[in-house]
Structures are given as C-alpha cells and as structure tokens.
Amino acid sequence: MVFKLVVLAAFVAVAKAGVPFGYSAPVAHVAAPVAYAAPIPRTIIAEPSAPAHYDFGYAVNDPLTGDSKSQHEIRRGDVVQGSYSLVDPDGTKRTVNYAADPHNGFNAVVHKEPLAVAPIAPVARIAAPVHAYAAPALHHASYY
C-alpha cells in the first residue's frame, strides 16, 4: 500500500513539474498577445416571399399490367384544389376530388364507378412438370 502511495506521489510531482525526470526544457518565450478583431455583424437578407402558385399533374395508363391512374392539383396561395383517380382491384374506378383552404380545412369527395372493361388480372405461369429422378447412389470409398 505504501508503494502505491509513493508511485502516486511521484506521478503527481511529475505532472506538476510538467517535464519528465532528467530533462531540462529550454526556457519558453511567450509571444505577445494577438490583437482581437471584433466579429463582423451579419446582415440578414430577407428574401421576397410570394404565395405558393403551381399546377401539377400526371397520368399512367399501362394496358399490359392494367395500371391506370392520374392526378391533377392546382395551388393558389393557401387554396389547393385537385383530383386523382385509380382503378381498384375490384374493377371499379375511384375518383377523389379534394380541396383545402384555411377556412374550410381539407375536404374530399369520393366517387366510384364500374369500368366497362374488366381489369386485367395477372396471368399465372404454369410451371413445367417436375420429373422424379433417382438420386445417385453414394459410394463409400476409403481414401486413406
């Protein structure tokens, strides 16, 4: 226990001295303080803000997969109006007309109508017949 205290005291002495044993460090010269420059004030540039104004739309009609959908949206400031439609798996076309504004909030009206043509169902592939083959006989050979 005494040994641990002696070692601890030696480490503390070295840490306070700042130099290792048997080493005489050259005298350090302290440089003159550096002149401090005041920070440059930031100027905040306000960008002009205009109300949002856009028209957006897309449509997909893939006869191979039966994927058919579309959307169109118009925004003028805080007023949004639009609609989208898609073919549901039950063969009906769902059309949703929606509108949103600060006074009425979001409102949507859904219409469903049957399609004249039944949707194309994915074609199931018939797997090739599986032939049963006998497994090769295992030969136990000694390779020692």
UniProtKB/TrEMBL annotation:
GO molecular function ontology, one term from the record: structural constituent of cuticle
Keywords assigned by UniProt, alphabetized: Cuticle, Signal
PROSITE patterns recorded for this chain? Answer: CHIT_BIND_RR_1, CHIT_BIND_RR_2
Q: Does the keyword Methyltransferase apply?
A: no
List GO terms (cellular component aspect). Answer: extracellular matrix
What Pfam families does this protein map onto? Chitin_bind_4
The record's section on InterPro entries has: CHIT_BIND_RR_consensus, Insect_cuticle, Insect_Cuticle_Struc_Prot
Q: Does the keyword Transmembrane apply?
A: no
Signal peptide region: 1-17
Stated name of the protein: Pupal cuticle protein Edg-84A-like Protein
Native organism: Tribolium castaneum
